[in-house]
Specification:
121 residues, alpha+beta
Length: 121
């Protein structure tokens, strides 16, 4: 592991309050997507991931990210690689560092939109 850094997979649902409301996956605007709708999608995804752990969770999370994430990292299964303090938006960074390796967050809101985060290192 890179000293003082974490590595996460994440799934982003952009919505009307996202600072750049355009999906990197579909190239379409998300300005018509409410925060509540984004949260509803993420809750459904969390439900499908519930009960999984270890590599099974990593694989299932990556598949969900490839199918739904609005971040450009969707193509890598949501993998953002290693990052350290002050490299990400505060809400996202705080949530990522608070997780144990193998632990998945609930819904985390940032300027980019609403996320689910899985710490993998």
């Amino acid at each position: 592991m890179a000293e003082g850094k974490v590595r996460v997979l994440h799934l982003l649902c952009k919505h009307e309050k996202s600072r750049n409301p355009v999906s990197r996956r579909t190239k379409e605007s998300t300005a018509g997507v409410s925060v509540e709708s984004a949260h509803g999608e993420l809750k459904a995804i969390l439900g499908r991931l519930e009960g999984k752990s270890g590599q099974e969770l990593v694989d299932a999370f990556a598949k969900e990210a490839q199918l739904r994430s609005d971040c450009g990292s969707f193509a890598q299964g949501g993998d953002l690689g290693f990052f350290g303090p002050s490299e990400m938006q505060k809400e996202f960074e705080d949530a990522s560092f608070a997780l144990d390796v193998g632990q998945m967050s609930g819904i985390v809101d940032s300027q980019s939109g609403s996320h689910i985060i899985l710490r993998i290192a």
